[in-house]
Amino acid sequence: MAAEFLTSTARGKGHLAVQVRTEDKDMNRQTVMHTGGSRRSPDQQPVPGWDSLQHGNCIEVWSNNSFLYRAYVDVRSDDGQLIWVVEKGTGGRRLFVRGDPVTLYPV
């Protein structure tokens, strides 16, 4: 039987690193996965138009100057007004509409 434990560590202003540890007691095995932790350089520019993003592109999702998570582009509308992303680590899928209070940065 596997058990999951969530731990979090503060990483500077507005950043949070979350670690998910899975312990499988039957197999005496641990898997550690880190989610969070931005690698964006201070001079990196956001994606100017979402129509330039392609399926599989890795991006960072920010809101109010705070890093939220890394994600992969799943589906984008032809005009770049809608974008579905899959959060790296959790696999959660989210829809964003151009004008939502998010900024996307290429990774």
Walkthrough of the structure:
By secondary structure, the protein is mostly beta strands. The protein folds into two domains: 2-35, no CATH class; 50-106, SH3 type barrels. It has strands at 2-10, 16-24, 29-35, 58-63, 66-76, 82-87, 93-97, 103-106. It has a five-stranded antiparallel β-sheet with strand order 7-6-5-4-8, with no helix packed on it. A hairpin with a 5-residue loop joins strand 5 (66-76) and strand 6.
Helices and strands, with pairings:
Elements (H helix, E strand, L loop, with lengths): L1 E9 L5 E9 L4 E7 L22 E6 L2 E11 L5 E6 L5 E5 L5 E4 L1
- Tell me the Rg in angstroms: 16 Å
The CATH topology label of the largest domain is: SH3 type barrels
Total count of domains: 2
What sort of overall outline do the alpha carbons produce when their principal axes are compared?
globular
Catalogue the unreliable spans.
1-35
Number of strands: 8
